[in-house]
Write a structure and sequence with these properties.
With about 450 residues, the chain is an alpha/beta fold. It has 18 helices and seven strands. It is globular, with a radius of gyration of 25 Å. The termini are far apart. Bound molecules: S-adenosylmethionine.
Length: about 450
């Protein structure tokens, strides 16, 4: 057991020495610069919170303990040379206890932005490129239809130009995020902040095992954390009567965004990492809602929906291989629906639901049917093959030539391409993998 009354720097040094590591080993394994590490250990600077989290994981040491040391050092730094430092600190303690935080104002809280989540195939890094082409090549600013919205990052960008933006996805967990970020209903931030403050003081010791912890604890989430997640989800359900639909959606979406970074996965729920999971505090945060009056939100099969819509342009970004999104994100689908189904297999998946035709041999026909039935002037279609082509499940269900042929049959098509180097971190070798955007002006 380490001494409580030593600084975060001394604490980190002692842990490292007890483990028999040299500073060089730590620098190599955590990607924290050697000099920075040395300055932290000698008390010449404080570590950042992500650095502490990184070190806790590397040392397999309680993150909670280290964060507590960090916070106490920060406070000490602020008050030690003040005449009334200790008194000020005691007053702050009372304010914290009684929830009198200065930061109880939604505008001043640290929040999650729409893009702060991991989602396979999201276009976050390509949005500017896509929208630039659309702006240059098309006319009209009335209605933009994002048929397969996913994270809604493209739809959000379109909101800067178009009066109405249609958002759609078959996943319930995506639909709830659209309601949370874009539904124009009034909501009470004070009410939600009070609830969030309660969530952030939950102690796992006081919480019983529940559906979420029994199934996912020690697998997709650390055991104590999974108890808290299950408890919060049930609590949101229990409060349904006192929340309007926007408030309900904001709490659920905030829960998803909060736990997204705490999942013991590589970014989806097809599998979990089979190593002991470090303890991490929940730190529940609300999302930053968007101000836009023209969002139209659907949770429908794309091909059924497009028959009902009319617009200037449709953006089409379906899945192109056999990996089903409803299976990748089954934990969030489960959490949002909260029907507590029986789960199967190592990855604890429910019975299949919302399986997409676009991930099957029917993809080509589905695509043809979709573009023929869209009542728009323009179509913008994203196409890529970002997975390693060696794996069968990663092979695209619609070939490049097939897309071109189908699009040429309904209008005049221009093709734009972007090398993947533009948006991957450079770590993966995608060789000749490219991102394409087909821009079709439909025949009258
Ligand atoms: C490649 S992702 C879209 C990514 C999105 N453009 C973004 O930037 O986040 C494809 C999306 O299509 C959805 N999807 C698949 N089949 C669908 C269907 N038949 N109808 C509606 N949505 C579907 C998936 O759930 C997934 O979110």
């Amino acid at each position: 057991m380490l001494d409580t009354f030593i600084s975060i720097g001394d604490t980190l040094k002692e842990i490292r020495e007890n483990k028999g590591f040299h500073l060089q080993d730590v620098a190599k394994n955590t990607s924290i610069n050697y000099t920075i590490l040395s300055r932290i250990e000698t008390g010449k600077r404080l570590p950042t919170k992500p650095q502490v989290q990184n070190l806790a994981t590397f040392y397999n040491y309680s993150e909670e303990e280290l964060i507590k040391h960090l916070i106490s050092d920060k406070i000490l730094y602020e008050v030690q040379n003040e005449d009334f430092g200790l008194e000020g600190f005691h007053l702050a303690e009372q304010k914290i206890k009684y929830g009198l935080s200065l930061f109880n104002d939604y505008n001043h809280l640290e929040k999650f932005e729409l893009h702060s989540r991991r989602y396979i195939g999201n276009k976050a890094k390509l949005t500017d490129w896509i929208m630039e082409i659309i702006q240059k090549e098309t006319t009209g600013n009335d209605t933009f239809i994002d048929v397969f919205s996913g994270t809604a990052i493209v739809a959000k960008e379109a909101m800067k130009t178009y009066k109405n933006v249609v958002l759609n996805d078959i996943l319930y967990s995506n639909n709830v995020t659209y309601q949370a970020f874009f539904d124009n209903k009034k909501w009470n931030s004070k009410k939600l902040i009070d609830i969030v403050n309660e969530y952030n003081t939950l102690n796992p010791k006081d919480i019983r095992e529940n559906y979420f912890s029994k199934n996912f604890g020690g697998k997709f989430y650390e055991k104590d954390l999974s108890k808290i997640i299950g408890y919060i989800r049930q609590d949101i359900e229990n409060r349904k009567e006192e929340l309007n639909s926007k408030e309900f959606a904001i709490l659920l979406t905030s829960l998803i965004y909060t736990i997204d970074r705490l999942a013991n996965t590589v970014g989806h729920f097809d599998a979990y990492i089979k190593k002991p999971i470090a303890k991490r505090p929940l730190n529940f945060r609300l999302i930053q809602t968007e101000d836009f009056e023209g969002a139209e939100i659907y949770c429908e099969d794309s091909n059924k929906l497009v028959r009902k819509l009319k617009g200037d342009i449709a953006y089409i970004d379906p899945p192109y291989n056999s990996r089903q999104y409803s299976r990748f994100y089954h934990v969030y689908e489960n959490l949002v629906q909260w029907k507590k189904p029986k789960l199967y297999g190592v990855a604890l998946k429910p019975e299949p639901e919302n399986m997409s035709k676009y991930c099957t041999v029917k993809a080509k026909n589905a695509f043809k049917d979709l573009v023929e039935n869209l009542d728009v002037k323009y179509l913008a279609v994203s196409y890529n093959n970002t997975y390693k082509s060696k794996s069968k499940s990663s092979k695209n269900k619609i070939k490049y030539e097939e897309i071109v042929e189908i699009l040429n049959s309904i209008g005049e098509t221009k093709i734009f391409e972007q090398s993947h180097k533009y948006f991957n971190t450079g770590k993966t070798d995608f060789n000749d993998h490219k991102e394409f955007l087909f821009l079709t002006k439909k025949y009258d």
